[in-house]
Amino acid sequence: QVQLVESGGGFVQPGGSLTLSCAASGPIANINAMGWYRQAAGKQRELVAKITNGGSTDYVDSVKGRFTISRDNAKNTLYLQMNSLKPEDTAVYYCNLVAVEVGIWSSKRYWGQGTQVTVSS
């Protein structure tokens, strides 16, 4: 029932900007945390940025100062603003949600389908 739909990926020149969106839908009672992961070809998936229920944020060192995570609670939508993009940022980006579903007593982790970000000249 709970689903995450990502959008905003694509091709961009080095130094360019891109904004990713992740819309959560379904019987969500409470969102505890949301984040963005990425997985480059041949590498492990890594946490890029996260935002807690209280609004605190954290970023992996490689994107600090360039990426900004935010959310719109009214729309249950997560965003990742990416500036000064580098070829090293090329990866499939995944939205992640930790939430309590309506009628369920514990939280679960949900994943978006992934969106490709390619930074190349």
Question: What are its keywords?
Answer:
11 strands; mainly beta; seven-stranded mixed sheet; 121 residues; single chain; four-stranded antiparallel sheet
Describe the structure.
This protein is mainly beta and 121 residues long. It is 0% helix and 59% strand. It is built from no helices and eleven strands. Strands 2, 4, 5, 6, 9, 10 and 11 form a seven-stranded mixed β-sheet that branches. A four-stranded antiparallel β-sheet has the order 1-3-8-7, with no helix packed on it. A hairpin with a 4-residue loop joins β5 (46-52) and β6 (57-59). It is elongated and about 50 Å long. The mean pLDDT is 95.
Mean of residue pLDDT values:
95
- Give the proportion of residues in helices: under 10%
* Ends apart, CA distance between termini: 40 Å
Q: In DSSP terms, counting alpha (H) and pi (I) runs of 4 or more, how many helices?
A: 0
Based on CA atoms alone, the radius of gyration comes out at: 14 Å
What is the element string, with H for helices and E for strands?
Answer: EEEEEEEEEEE
What kind of oligomer do you see?
single chain
The major sheet is characterized as: 7 strands, mixed
- Percent of residues in beta strands: over 45%
The structure class reads mainly beta
Secondary structure: number of strands: 11
The low-confidence runs, each spanning 5 or more residues with pLDDT under 50, are none
Shape summary: elongated
What is this structure, in a nutshell?
The protein is an all-beta fold and 121 residues long. It is 0% helix and 59% strand. It is elongated.
